[in-house]
C-alpha cells in the first residue's frame, strides 16, 4: 500500500533529500523486509509517514506497513505482543518500559528520535478569560505569566470551594505529562494537589475540551490549533517556551527484534534519516501536509497542517497569531540522535513526580533505553560526537528551561531538590493508564 509505485509521480519526484547519504556498512542476508509500524495521528509521525509515502524506505529495501492506532497504551501493548515490529512512541515510553513501569512493561529501546517540538498547552476559552480577569493578563504575555495567572484563578477557586480543574495529558509516561507539570510548577501550581490530571487520547482532546469534560490539555500538533480554530481553546504555551530541546517522539522497538534483525534496523534508520532531512526542507511542507491530511494518517485540514509545520499559529478564537521558529525540527541539530542525557532527564522527571525512586539501578535502566550505538552503526559518519551523550541541558542561549534551571545528568538528586514544587516523598496522583 505504501510502496513508491502506489503513489503518484508528483510525490515520487519529491524523493531528493538523503540520496547522497552512503549506504550503511551492513552485511547482506536479510533481503527485502516488511516492517509493521504503529503510529498515532500526530504531525510528529511525519518522518515515519514520509519514509513510507515518498520512497525512502523502499530505497533501502524496506516496505513500511503503517498501522494507525488510537492510544499510546494500545501502541505499547501491540509492540509488546509482537503485532508491531516498531512503533511511533513517546520519548519516555522506552525509559518507563526498561524501568518496569506501567501496566504492561516490556523491554523497549529506541535508536532514533523523530525530531523536536510539536507540543503545546491549550486551555478552555472560559478558563483563559478568568485568567485575564484574575491575573491582569495580556494576550502577548509569555508562558510563565500565563502559568502564574492560572495559579491566581486556582487560588480563588480553592477559597470558593470549587472542584479542581481537570487537565488532559496523553499518557502517564509522556513528554506532555512532564511538560504540563513543568509549566504548572513554574507558575507555583502543584500538579498533584491543585489540579487533576487525566489521560485523553490526542485526537479526542479538542472534543473533550469542547464538551467541558476537561479544562485544558497538553498534546502534540495539530490538535492544539484545531481547538483554537474551533473556538474552544486558547494556546498558552508551546514546547519551545518550556524547553526547546525537550525529547519528544521516538521509534521504539523490542531489543530482541533489533538483535535478530540488525540489517533491517540499519536500513530503516538510513531511510528515516533521509525522510527527516526531506521533512525539514521548507519547500516540502505543502506535499507533506497533503499526505498527513489524508484520513489514514492525521486526518486534519491540510491548511492547518501547513501552518503548524511552519510554526504559524492561530492561538485563540479571536484570531490572534503567533509564529514559533523551529516549532518542528525533524533533522537539523542532530534532532534524530537518541541522546542518553535525554533519557536521564526523563528519569529525573519521573523521580520528581513520585513515579519512581532515584537509584543506581534506575539510572542504568534509563540509559539502556536509548541506543546511540545502533544509530552510529547505521549512520556513523552522520552521528554527532559522543561528548553530547552526557551533556548539560538548558545551559546555552536559545535552549533554556523556562524557569532557568540547568540539568546536569550526573547530579540528578541536586537538580530535583532545587525545585520548590515536587512530589517530596508523598504519593502522586495516579493517571489512569489507558
UniProtKB/TrEMBL annotation:
GO CC terms, sorted: endomembrane system
SUPFAM superfamilies xrefs: Periplasmic binding protein-like II
InterPro entries assigned: NrtA/CpmA_ABC-bd_dom
Main location group: membrane
Subcellular location per the Swiss-Prot or TrEMBL entry: Endomembrane system
Keywords: Cell inner membrane, Cell membrane, Membrane, Transport
CDD domains according to UniProt: PBP2_NrtA_CpmA_like
Keyword Cell membrane: yes
Pfam families with a match to the protein in the record: NMT1_2
Signal peptide as annotated in the record: none
Transport recorded as keyword: yes
Protein name: ABC transporter substrate-binding protein
Source organism: Sinorhizobium glycinis
Amino acid at each position: 500500500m505504501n510502496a513508491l509505485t502506489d503513489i503518484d509521480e508528483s510525490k515520487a519526484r519529491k524523493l531528493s533529500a538523503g540520496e547522497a547519504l552512503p549506504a550503511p556498512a551492513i552485511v547482506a542476508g536479510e533481503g527485502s523486509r516488511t516492517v509493521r509500524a504503529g503510529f498515532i495521528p500526530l504531525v510528529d509521525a511525519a518522518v515515519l509517514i514520509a519514509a513510507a509515502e515518498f520512497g525512502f524506505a523502499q530505497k533501502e529495501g524496506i516496505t513500511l506497513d503503517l498501522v494507525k492506532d488510537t492510544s499510546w497504551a494500545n501502541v505499547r501493548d501491540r509492540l509488546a505482543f509482537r503485532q508491531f515490529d516498531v512503533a511511533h512512541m513517546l520519548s519516555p515510553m522506552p525509559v518507563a518500559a526498561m524501568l518496569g513501569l506501567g501496566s504492561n512493561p516490556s523491554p523497549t529501546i529506541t535508536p532514533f528520535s523523530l525530531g523536536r517540538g510539536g507540543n503545546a498547552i491549550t486551555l478552555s476559552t472560559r478558563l483563559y478569560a478568568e485568567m485575564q480577569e484574575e491575573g491582569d493578563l495580556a494576550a502577548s504575555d509569555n508562558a510563565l505569566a500565563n502559568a502564574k495567572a492560572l495559579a491566581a484563578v486556582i487560588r480563588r477557586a480553592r477559597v470558593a470551594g470549587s472542584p479542581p480543574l481537570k487537565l488532559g495529558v496523553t499518557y502517564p509516561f509522556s513528554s506532555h505529562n512532564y511538560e504540563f507539570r513543568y509549566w504548572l510548577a513554574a507558575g507555583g501550581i502543584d500538579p498533584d494537589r491543585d489540579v487533576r490530571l487525566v489521560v485523553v487520547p490526542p485526537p479526542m482532546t479538542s472534543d473533550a475540551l469542547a464538551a467541558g469534560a476537561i479544562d485544558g490539555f497538553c498534546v502534540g500538533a495539530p490538535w492544539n490549533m484545531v481547538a483554537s480554530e474551533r473556538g474552544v481553546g486558547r494556546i498558552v504555551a508551546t514546547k519551545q517556551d518550556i524547553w526547546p530541546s525537550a525529547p519528544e517522539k521516538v521509534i521504539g522497538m523490542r531489543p530482541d527484534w533489533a538483535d535478530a534483525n540488525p540489517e533491517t534496523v540499519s536500513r530503516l534508520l538510513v531511510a528515516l534519516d533521509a525522510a527527516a532531512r526531506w521533512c525539514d526542507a521548507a519547500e516540502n511542507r505543502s506535499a507533506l501536509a497533503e499526505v498527513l491530511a489524508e484520513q489514514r494518517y492525521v486526518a486534519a485540514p491540510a491548511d492547518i497542517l501547513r501552518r503548524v509545520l511552519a510554526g504559524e499559529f492561530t492561538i485563540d478564537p479571536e484570531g490572534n497569531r503567533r509564529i514559533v521558529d523551529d516549532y518542528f525540527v525533524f533533522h537539523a541539530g542532530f534532532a534524530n540522535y537518541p541522546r542518553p542525557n535525554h533519557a536521564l532527564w526523563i528519569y529525573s522527571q519521573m523521580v520528581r513526580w513520585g513515579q519512581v525512586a532515584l537509584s543506581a539501578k534506575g539510572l542504568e535502566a534509563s540509559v539502556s533505553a536509548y541506543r546511540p550505538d545502533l544509530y552510529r552503526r547505521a549512520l556513523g559518519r552522520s552521528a554527532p560526537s559522543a561528548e553530547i551523550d552526557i551533556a548539560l541541558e538548558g545551559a546555552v542561549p536559545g535552549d533554556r528551561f523556562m524557569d532557568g534551571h540547568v540539568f546536569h545528568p550526573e547530579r540528578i538528586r541536586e537538580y530535583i531538590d532545587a525545585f520548590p514544587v515536587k512530589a517530596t516523598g508523598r504519593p502522586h496522583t495516579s493517571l489512569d493508564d489507558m
